Amino acid sequence: MRAFIALTRPLNLLIIVLTMVTMRYGLLRGLLWPDAHTLQQDLPAFVALVLSTVLIAAAGNVINDYFDTRIDRINKPNDVIVGRTVKRRVAMAGHLVLSGVGLLLGAWAAWRAGSPRLALIPAFAIGALWTYSTTFKRRLFIGNGLVATLTALVPLTVGLYEVPLLELRYAPELLGSGVPVEATEGYFKLLWSGIVLYTVFAFATTLVRELQKDMADVRGDEADGCRTVPIVLGMKWARALVVFYSICICMAAWFLYRRYLGDTLSFWVITFGVIAPMLVSAWMSATATEREGHVLAGNVMKAAMVVAIAYAWLLGPILHA
Length: 321
Hints:
globular
């Protein structure tokens, strides 16, 4: 059992939970008008939504390792689980159970929110994770883009469930109390802007991390016939893309700080908690010559992502100050 749990990558699952909780209770609740409005999605439905996302992600991690056994035997031979401590049929059965339960919970959460079509999100995630592991992982750019899209869905899903319910509940009330249409629309645009901001950030930073993982795993990927960026275009191009994407993300973060924030606390968090680690991570990727160096660069990037997510708890108080 312990080996199977390790196969699901619990730390990554914990980050998913923290991200969704932060988007709901840190970002959205923080941006609501203080002492006036409350979140509308009920707690059981939100718990089901989080569990659905976590279980489907866990299933994706299991099936990815199931199909990556040959690659892992080259890149990290001491860490191979499927086929050793976890039998292949057990891994496949676990994937099916986790995906099935995750889909059912996602469908229930969608029904509870009054929008059954949202059940397409967990269905899409299950299909995308399977095709990534079997096919798209080995194709140039497509695999990285698919993983980045799935990561971006984590914060976006919270907004898709919560913000429409807030609009349905409070827009008539605001308009009826004499709040101008422009101000009412601007209020809900602010909520969407926060969610979209984190969605784009998750997508962009995951692209960088996927490139860093490709550089770390180049030996095994090449032996398995994968067509990743460092294999097809070369390590120099992969390094250049990591540096370019990282600089673009840092410039965007600095622009948003200068344009919309400007407070001292945000300066310290964004500068030294997000931008500095990302630049260090990019430099490490540009100079690494061994697999361990690329792995460490990816971990530094992940730390910057966690800090950026945690910062969402501060946005509401800062903007309302």
